[in-house]
Amino acid sequence: MEPEIIFHNKYSGKLEAEKVYGEKWLKFIYGNFIGKLCLWALVRRKIFSKWYGWKMNRRNSRSKILPFIKKFGLDTAEFAEDVSSFATFNEFFFRKLISSSRPLSNEFNSASFPADGRHLAFDDLSKVKGVFVKGQRFNLEKLFGSEELAAPYQKGSLVLSRLCPTDYHRFHFPVSGRMGKVSLINGGLYSVNPIALRKNLSIFWENKRYLTFIDSHHFGRVAIFLVGATCVGSVHLTAQENHSYEKGDELGYFSFGGSSLITLFSENMIKLDHDLSVTSSNGYETYVKMGEALGKSSFS
Questions:
Q1: How far apart are CA 272 and CA 41, in angstroms?
Q2: Cα 272 to chain center, whole Å?
Q3: pLDDT-based confidence at residue 23 (cuts at 50, 70, 90)
Q4: b/e map of 121-136 (b: 16 or more CB within 10 Å)?
Q5: Which position has the higher pLDDT, 205 or 30?
Q6: Is 167 considered catalytic here?
Q7: pLDDT tens, 129-180?
Q8: List 61, 116, 161, 277, catalytic entry
Q9: Domain segments of the chain: what residues?
Q10: Which listed residue (8, 119, 172, 218) is catalytic?
């Protein structure tokens, strides 16, 4: 039997067990030989995500919205639009929120979390001995698809933001700066659910992902990966290449499913939040909402 997924909730101050959406299916896919054959034959291939995306865009998917809200205790007062306005489950899934529900850290030299989710953070990647499972480490050359692009971040800081289907699925700029070109690094569509990640961290550099850089006055060149996943074959960008944005501005959103962002700072460019770093070093993700401070610039 798979152990519970335990994370630290910043708001309750407690360790909590995650309610995993589709848990039985994920344990089947990743937990036995027959499931792994199904994974290879169907789930990781884009046709599955296209089919599921089509299903969640159909009018009859609307019937899933209210039961989902009730089961996972979502706060509808945060929604920018009334629940009755969503024509499909996907419209509900990438809903907007009222700005007051996600207040932004207003310190000029702070970076903010780019999305709601469960976050892991590492101050110096070169000193990380293991992630989730002892011995699993980030392979930055494979993640970037380039030794040259990865080089500035080998001793830098990394924040992994894992979104669950129950989370707000729009993501935002963690720092102010100029957004560069967006590059697609093609790959499969494995689940980024913790059940899968604890078995194989390489999902992040095997999955389809988008990479962009933000040139920031306080944080240097910040790299952001938008990682696709099972049922999230499409990443929707609402920001434009080669434009300047303020911290907290919307960068884009994910369609239905779980998904992740990886934010990387080069060496000595940020001092991560102390509690976040300590909790991560103990092997626990921390649930934090978009907009809260994840760290401060080392130089201001």
A1: 41
A2: 18
A3: very low
A4: bbbebeebeebeeeeb
A5: 205
A6: no
A7: 767 655 677 889 989 999 999 999 999 999 999 898 889 999 999 999 999 9
A8: 116
A9: 104-297
A10: 172
Cα 273 to Cα 78, 103, 155, distances in angstroms: 26, 17, 18
Q: 0.90 cut: is pTM over it? A: no
| Structure-token pair, residue 206 | 């095997």
Measure CA 285 to chain center.
12
Nearest to 273 by CA among 293, 255, 243: 293
Give the tens place of pLDDT for each residue, 91-140. Answer: 999 999 999 999 998 888 999 999 999 999 999 999 887 676 556 778 89
Q: Which residues of 212-234 are buried (b: 16+ CB within 10 A; e: fewer)?
A: bbbebebbbbbbbbbbbbbbbbb
Active-site annotation holds for 85: no
Identify the active-site residue in 259, 260, 280, 297.
Answer: 259
Measured in whole angstroms, the distance separating CA 28 from the mean position of its chain's CA atoms is 23
Q: Is 259 a catalytic residue?
A: yes
Length of the chain: 300
Rounded CA Rg of the chain = 18
